[in-house]
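Lines hold sequence, tokenised fold; shown next:
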Amino acid sequence: MKPWGYLATLLWAVLVVVIAQAAGIVALYWAYHGDLSAVAGHPNDGVAVAIITLATNPIEIGLLAGVAMLARWDPAEYLGLVVPRSEDVTFAMIWLAALIIVGDVIIYLITGQLVPTFEIDAYESARDAGWLTGLAIATVVAAPAGEEIVFRGFLFRGWVRSPSGAKIAIPIISIIFASLHIQYDIFGMAQILAVGLFLGYVRWRSGSTLLTILCHAVLNLESSIETAIKVHWFS
């Protein structure tokens, strides 16, 4: 069975993301009792970030599973939701640790800080509203699962069809992935691009989107811990 074509893959992905974002806006509208101006005035609000992340990512996953079924594939197989080999897990965790350390050193040398303003604002506003648990679940569970299934699951399946094709498709997917993280500055987006390339290689080597979800979750957990340390100990 063939996956969706290159253009069809892109169009399906865009449609799914648009539908999910629309649902996220509805969730925000409900949570803020129709006052979306409060969200627009505070784009780094941790409660809003948690709500829209928790609302959109499950919808994206469900819709993409349905799109895979339309192509007559088993959704888990199409999206790469297979258990990785132990050697691939070991490889990914070692190189992820190296990527985190090198990335943090470079960002600190360039900017003088490890934690972006967006993450500090989101953490503090969620803490003040009693939403830290919701933000943590959104950041460490929902976002990694949804983003990886979109990028290293669905787009990867449609665009990476050979070793030579991977050399083109993985960078393109990584650029799209980084460009959507507009809440960060240029240095943060460059770091996310490097992460995207790493996750793309892990997906290609292992064949498992579950492994890239794990890597993404560990990365976000490490970033959340850095943010908590910054807020509570170095403010």
The chain has a mean pLDDT of 95. Residues 6-233 form one domain. The chain has one domain: 6-233. DSSP finds ten helices and no strands in the chain.
